[in-house]
Structure formats: C-alpha cells, structure tokens
Amino acid sequence: MRTPEPARRLFAGSLRSEKVAGSPLGIGFLRELQGNIQEWISPLPKDADADTTEFMRMSLLDAAEAEVAPIGTGIHRPYRVVFHSGMDAGPVTTRQAVLKTVYCQYENKRYCASVDLNITGPEREILSYEMDRVLGFDLVPPVAGREIAGVGYGSVQAWVNQPTAWEWLSKGYDYREDKTNPWLHRLAAFDFIRGEIDRHANNWIMDEEHRVYAIDNGYSIVKGDDRTWMRSSAGKHLVGTPIHPSVENEIASINEEAVAAVLAPKGFIHGEVEGVLKRIKELKGLDRWTKLGNLW
To answer: What residues make up the domain containing 278?
Structure first.
C-alpha cells in the first residue's frame, strides 16, 4: 500500500483521543489487529500520526454507543450514532458516526440493476474505504463494520464536520468551475474505478481548503464494466480537462494486485473484480478526462 505524503494525509495534525475505562484500544489490541491484516498491507507504524486513519477506524470498532437516531428521509435511511469515546483529527471525528444498514439496497432500481445484491450496502461502504487505502487517494473517512444496539449490523463512518459540495455553492465556492483542484480529480478517478452510480454533490464533503471527503459510497462496484448508471458529479465537470499531474502519477502507481486482493474475499461472481481492473488500466492510459459513465 502506498503511504500518502504528510501534506496529503486524510487527517493532518495531531490526534486526540478519549476512551472509556477498560477500553481494549492498547498495545495488545493493536498487535492482534496487526496480525490479522493481509500481507499486502503495510504494518501499523509506531507513530500514531503516521497512520491516523487506521487508529480512528479501530476507535469506531471499540467505542460504546451512547445514542442512536435516524437522520434524513432518503433511500439510505442512515442513522447518527454518538459514542461515549472517540478521536478527533481536523474536521473528522469518531465521537459520532453515520450508520448504514442493509435495508438501503433494495429501494433504487439503478442499484438493483447494476450490482449483486448478495453483497450488501454496508459491505460496499467498507470495501470502498479499503480500496481507497490501497489506491492511495486518501478520500474516504474511516469506516468499520459493527453491531449497533437496537439497530443491528451496519457500516459506521467517522463524522465530518464540514459542508457538502452542494452547500459550498451557497458559500461562494463552485466546485464545477475549479478544474485545478487535485482532490476533485482524485474523486473522479475513485468513482470511475469503483463503478460509482450515485456520486452527486450532497454525498461528498469539502473543508475550507476545498479538500474532499468521499462519503456515501455504498452504491458502487457494478457488475463487470456496466456503465449504464455510472455517475460522478466531480468527473462530469472535468470532462475535457487534463488530468491533474499529481493525480496522474498516483493513478500510474496503482498496484492492481493489491486492489484485487481487497475485492477477492467478498466472492464477487459477476465480473466485478475484472471490471475494476479494466477501468484502472483504461484510466492509466488517459491524459485528460473524458465521459467515462453514461451519467457523467
């Protein structure tokens, strides 16, 4: 796995944590986790700041929930979970999280037509985080799968205290006109590789420096190379634009075997892995953005 340079790290700055008494988030817990990580993943570093995302993911697994309540009325039916403990790094916190359950996956005909319903929405959220780690784009806030009392099993994603891209429009920043922001180029690449079918401006977040946090990643990993419903609001507005040089280099250095290793354990049987690898190869051959999905 490529380790992003410090200036690009998802959670730059110091890591602060609070935990309840008796929490297992100590050296023994880290050693156990380290032993379970697949061979292609780099071991956990000694310095917490060097791999903050993984420490925050463990915090999501470890913390006891204090409050759970539904948020919004959309098809995803997410919940907001508040924990008794957590970590903060920049605008990202594990003191609260967005919970996605399996019940989101049957309500959208595009989703039903495009993906294998045996692989649940929460699993795709977790896979998207794992793929992002291997791709090195540093876009997805930490995600973990766990049981939440009163709701059941789902994916929990660290909360990001910043506006969505859509909300930034009312603040005077129009991402549609910003062709030089490398984070938008990373998001477009991430969406294309995974076969994203629901990337609109309300499911990615930007901070004051217009750095992107990709949330709501469950509508992804299409069968084969089905581009019928593939959608990326970032990619759509970059069509015709040269790929940002730093992102072009990142794309060129993607380890395709590592990406396949993330997907393989899920047992995809409709050419999903082959489709992902095909799109990586195609992206490596481009020097400017083109229309890469029917809804781009």
So the answer is: 6-284
Give the number of domains in the chain.
1
pLDDT in tens, 1-29: 333 333 334 443 334 444 433 333 333 33
The answer as to whether 296 is a domain residue is: no
Could you tell me the sign of the dihedral formed by the alpha carbons of 226, 228, 229, 235, in that order?
positive
In a domain, 294, yes or no: no
Let me know if residue 266 belongs to a domain.
yes
In whole angstroms, what is the distance from residue 3 CA to residue 8 CA? 10
Q: Which of 83, 15, 7 shows the shortest CA–CA distance to 48?
A: 15
pTM: 0.84
- As a whole number, mean pLDDT of residues 239-255 equals 98
Please report whether residue 72 resides in a domain.
yes
Mean pLDDT value across residues 281-295: 96
